[in-house]
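Input record, target 12 of the design panel.
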């Protein structure tokens, strides 16, 4: 069992060595999707919190839509983030133990955090608790069938939890607290077999010049994406409370 301290050590090191140096294509595609979904809300006064913000790289982009708070276990990394972006509020610590106010946010964003959580139902419940009635969760997580069946992923390191989910499992987790409005895969990828050729950059660059993003979109609809992305809304009104009282983890 990985302790919070071992996880903090791992993510401080990982973020410093990886995410502070560059943001990869998969993360950029996740951000692109989140920003597209936020643009559809057509508001600039939202209260937004990013849970598991890592180096805080997405937070400045979120400020287009309102006031932004970022939280992460990586305290060393967040200290540097606060110096880079002094107008954004960063809070370091174990998310499960942070004294964050209930129903304080219009939007919760969380990119590739769920798979590193031991108690996933509690994690979803905590994010739902932060949302105002009618607020939305925008979540990205690793797509287990793609990573386990079509990619070469090194084993987890000390302090690194790995609990991937598939589409059905993600939907079930979210529906204990929220109403799922969108659930799709993005960033088709494979590192072995025939699918490696079909998702490869060479073929995709060629097809993009002919049919645009339609080939990529087809693969995403087939569930070939590295990432599962969900938009889920917190229901409004007394019916929501009645539903929650019978839900696991309440």
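The sequence produced for target 12 reads:
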């Amino acid at each position: 069992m990985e302790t919070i301290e071992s996880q903090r050590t791992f993510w401080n090191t990982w973020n410093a060595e990886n995410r502070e140096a560059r943001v990869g294509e998969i993360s950029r595609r996740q951000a692109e999707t989140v920003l597209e979904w936020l643009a559809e809300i057509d508001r600039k006064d939202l209260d937004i919190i990013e849970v598991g913000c890592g180096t805080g790289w997405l937070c400045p982009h979120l400020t287009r839509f309102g006031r932004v708070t970022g939280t992460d276990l990586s305290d060393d990394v967040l200290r540097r983030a606060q110096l880079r972006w002094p107008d954004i509020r960063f809070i370091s610590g174990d998310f499960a133990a942070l004294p964050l106010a209930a129903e304080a946010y219009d939007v919760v964003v969380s990119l590739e955090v769920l798979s590193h959580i031991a108690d996933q139902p509690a994690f979803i419940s905590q994010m739902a608790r932060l949302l105002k009635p009618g607020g939305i969760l925008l979540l990205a997580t690793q797509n287990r069938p793609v990573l386990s069946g079509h990619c070469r992923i090194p084993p987890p390191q000390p302090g690194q939890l790995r609990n991937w989910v598939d589409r059905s499992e993600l939907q079930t987790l979210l529906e204990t607290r929220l109403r799922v409005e969108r659930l799709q895969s993005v960033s088709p990828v494979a590192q072995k077999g025939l699918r490696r050729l079909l998702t490869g950059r060479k073929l995709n660059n060629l097809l993009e010049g002919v049919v645009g993003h339609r080939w990529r979109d087809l693969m995403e609809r087939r569930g070939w994406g590295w990432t599962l992305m969900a938009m889920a809304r917190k229901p409004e009104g007394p019916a929501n409370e009645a539903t929650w009282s019978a839900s696991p983890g309440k």
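Residues 234 and 240 are 8 Å apart (CA to CA).
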